[in-house]
């Protein structure tokens, strides 16, 4: 992509409304634009990152055996009356009427709708286990939308729903999601720690929140420092094997949100030098809620003995749009964002330090064509900004690899390769740069 053809409205000034660094940087880097409180348009740079994050979430859900579908954003109020949540959900739910005065709502979550789909088709335990997920916009009329995409009113969520014959089978489904979440967040360069948590309006009595430690986070947390060093299961993890050893390893080290924190246990179990009380960002939450929806909504299957029983369910959410904020909170410096490569909007930036100089233009064009042909996502800064402004922009938007091409270096056959993560620089020949980025 040529920057001269791209839409990247970078802000010079720090936006006053942004209280935390991720919100500030997303606005300054031209990633999002607020259209109403807690409602954002995704500009091209932000949208590219959102899609990358979404794709990692999708790949790890698929790997675990969950199946993707897509449910609508609008739902019938009557469906929510079946579960009893229509009135219980309160003012956070956006209620709408259509031209026939039929009551609708913009979905804040989808337990009811997926249960309706399930009960229409699945009648036998033989069709279980089943885990269905979608990645869809949600609306919650939050009292205090703030921190940009971190607490929005409209936000993108991955929500999965599992269906099983009994509690033991449902716990197997829960464990699969637990492992899939460990992998998902690690692939994005995040340390997200599963913590025992409250269940709130989703219900049930077993739940974990996945939390990224950050001073700016909204959740208070208590952990044993050792949890930060636990190994994340690899790509070869077998989802059909017994996952309980992994779950045990992760849940036997103390980690809890302040809502369920047990001070006595914390002090008894965790040596003083390993106790950490800090804050964090909840990037996902998983729930086992048994028959909370299947009983009132009559989602029944025939068991092996032919008797109909309500299924045991769980639901599993990832805050896809929130993750952009969480990753920036974890990966930035004074100059801007430091995207982990897996989610970067572009992997490489080429900075032409003397636009209009025939030799420099030629070298930039050649490298741009070569890298692009090899499948590397390149942003080529071919604008006539001065070099200093180009350095600042590339650092601000956080491109992991920056290639600086100017007349001086080129005279010696060298260009400069900078790594955004640690600022390290090397002078290399163009061929070596290509080998480094493609090899
Ligand atoms: N139905 C369940 C699981 S599918 C559910 O709705 N869970 S949730 O309420 O915990 O939401 C799932 C994830 O969405 C949260 O972990 C959080 O990362 C994200 N999320 C929740 N509210 C917001 C919000 N207002 N803005 C951005 N992300 C949010």
Structural account:
There is one protein chain. By secondary structure, the protein is of the alpha+beta class. It folds into two domains: 3-337, BirA Bifunctional Protein, domain 2 (2-Layer Sandwich), CATH 3.30.930; 348-438, 3-Layer(aba) Sandwich (Rossmann fold), CATH 3.40.50. The chain is 32% helix and 28% strand. It has helices at residues 21-28, 44-63, 77-83, 85-88, 111-121, 167-187, 244-251, 263-269, 294-297, 320-330, 358-373, 387-397, 407-411, 430-438; strands at residues 32-36, 39-42, 67-68, 74-76, 94-97, 103-106, 130-139, 154-164, 192-196, 206-213, 219-224, 255-257, 275-290, 300-302, 308-310, 312-319, 332-333, 336-337, 348-352, 378-381, 401-405, 415-419, 425-428. The strands form six sheets. Strands 3, 7, 8, 9, 10, 11, 12, 13 and 16 form a nine-stranded mixed sheet that branches. Helix 11 (358-373) runs parallel beside helix 14. It is globular, with a radius of gyration of 24 Å. It starts with 20 loop residues before the first helix and ends with a helix. The model has no long low-confidence stretch (mean pLDDT 97). It binds 5'-O-(N-(L-cysteinyl)-sulfamoyl)adenosine. Residues 109, 111, 140, 142, 151-152, 155, 157, 159, 202, 282-285, 315-317, 319, 321-322 line the site of 5'-O-(N-(L-cysteinyl)-sulfamoyl)adenosine.
């Amino acid at each position: 992509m040529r920057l001269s053809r791209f839409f990247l409205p970078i802000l010079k000034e720090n936006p006053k409304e942004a209280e935390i660094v991720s919100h500030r940087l997303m606005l300054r880097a031209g990633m999002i634009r607020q259209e109403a409180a807690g409602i954002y348009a995704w500009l091209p740079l932000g949208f590219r990152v959102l899609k990358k994050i979404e794709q990692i979430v999708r790949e790890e859900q698929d790997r675990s055996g969950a199946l993707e579908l897509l449910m609508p954003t609008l739902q019938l109020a009557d469906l929510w009356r079946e579960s009893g949540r229509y009135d219980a959900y309160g003012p956070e739910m956006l209620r709408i009427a259509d031209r026939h005065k039929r009551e609708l709502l913009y979905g804040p979550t989808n337990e009811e709708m997926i249960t309706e789909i399930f009960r229409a088709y699945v009648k036998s335990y033989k069709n279980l286990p089943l885990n269905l997920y979608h990645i869809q916009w949600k609306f919650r009329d939050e009292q205090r939308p703030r921190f940009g995409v971190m607490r929005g009113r409209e936000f993108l969520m991955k929500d999965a729903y599992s269906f099983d014959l009994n509690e033991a089978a449902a716990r197997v489904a829960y464990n699969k999601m637990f492992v899939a979440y460990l992998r998902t967040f690690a692939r994005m360069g995040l340390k997200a720690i599963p913590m025992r948590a409250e269940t709130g309006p989703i219900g049930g009595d077993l739940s974990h929140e996945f939390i990224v430690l950050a001073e700016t986070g909204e959740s208070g947390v208590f952990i044993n420092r050792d949890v930060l060093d636990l190994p994340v299961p690899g790509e070869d993890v077998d989802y059909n094997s017994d996952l309980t050893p992994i779950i045990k390893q992760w849940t036997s080290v103390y980690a809890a949100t302040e809502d369920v924190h047990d001070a006595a246990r914390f002090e008894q179990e965790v040596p003083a030098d390993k106790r950490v009380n800090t804050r964090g960002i909840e990037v996902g939450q998983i729930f086992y809620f048994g028959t909370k929806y299947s009983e009132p909504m009559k989602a029944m299957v025939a068991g092996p003995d032919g008797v109909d029983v309500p299924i045991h369910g769980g639901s599993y959410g990832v805050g896809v749009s929130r993750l952009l904020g969480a990753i920036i909170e974890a990966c930035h410096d004074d100059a801007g964002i430091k995207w982990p490569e897996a989610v970067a909007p572009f992997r490489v930036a080429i900075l032409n330090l003397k636009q209009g100089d025939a030799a420099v233009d030629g070298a930039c064009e050649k490298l741009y064509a070569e890298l692009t042909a090899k499948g590397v996502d390149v942003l080529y800064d071919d604008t006539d900004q001065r070099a200093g402004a180009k350095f600042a922009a590339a650092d601000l938007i956080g491109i992991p690899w920056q290639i600086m091409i100017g007349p001086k270096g080129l005279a010696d056959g060298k260009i400069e390769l900078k790594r955004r993560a640690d600022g390290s620089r090397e002078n290399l020949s163009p061929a070596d740069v290509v080998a480094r980025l493609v090899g």
